[in-house]
Write a structure and sequence with these properties.
With 151 residues, the protein is an alpha/beta fold. The protein has a single domain, classed as 4-Layer Sandwich (Purple Acid Phosphatase, chain A, domain 2). 15% of the residues lie in helices and 35% in strands. It contains 4 helices and 10 strands, in the order βαβαβαββαβββββ. The strands form 2 sheets. It has a 5-stranded mixed β-sheet, with helices on one face. The protein has a 5-stranded mixed β-sheet with strand order 4-5-6-8-7, with no helix packed on it.
Length: 151
């Protein structure tokens, strides 16, 4: 299964992000959506699971869950906008992939046998960080993640 991961759009969904996510089977948005219409546009590509971030304080984005857990291709995925907000022990819960955002810094890290993925920010450029999304391949319980810089 190929999963697209996006975060920190802050109300801006770039055409390059849509292009990078085409063909995925599911999309995860790790918060700071900024405009609920973004989720509708992503749903034109694939089913979407989204959580709220610290800027999603009102309207439909404010009603998104703070965290989410879902199973994709036999892998338990846990989503949280900021790692500081984790409300479970991922290893004890059997999580295989933790998806987060907030820092705008793209990162793939293996900790305790769990892949931690921050796709970076796909919205307005911040600091001098690249704009990016990620793709995850889940097959046979193995999780492989890659960051896709959008320019």
């Amino acid at each position: 299964m190929i999963v697209g991961v996006i975060s920190d759009t802050h109300g801006l969904l770039r055409p390059e992000a849509l292009d990078a996510l085409r063909g995925v089977e599911h999309i995860l948005h790790a918060g700071d959506v900024g405009n609920f219409d973004i989720l509708d546009r992503l749903r034109e590509i694939a089913p979407v699971t989204a959580i709220r971030g610290n800027v999603d304080t009102h309207g439909p984005c404010g009603e998104l869950p703070l965290t989410e857990a879902l199973e994709l291709a036999g892998c338990l995925v846990y989503m949280v906008h900021s790692l500081e907000w984790i409300d479970i022990v991922p290893k004890a819960a059997g999580v295989g992939l933790v998806v987060y955002g907030h820092s705008h810094v793209a990162k793939v890290e293996l900790r305790d046998g769990i892949v931690y993925l921050n796709p970076g920010s796909a919205g307005p450029r911040r600091f001098k960080l690249p704009v990016s999304v990620a793709k995850v391949r889940i097959e046979g319980g193995v999780v492989e993640a890659e960051i896709l810089e959008l320019g």
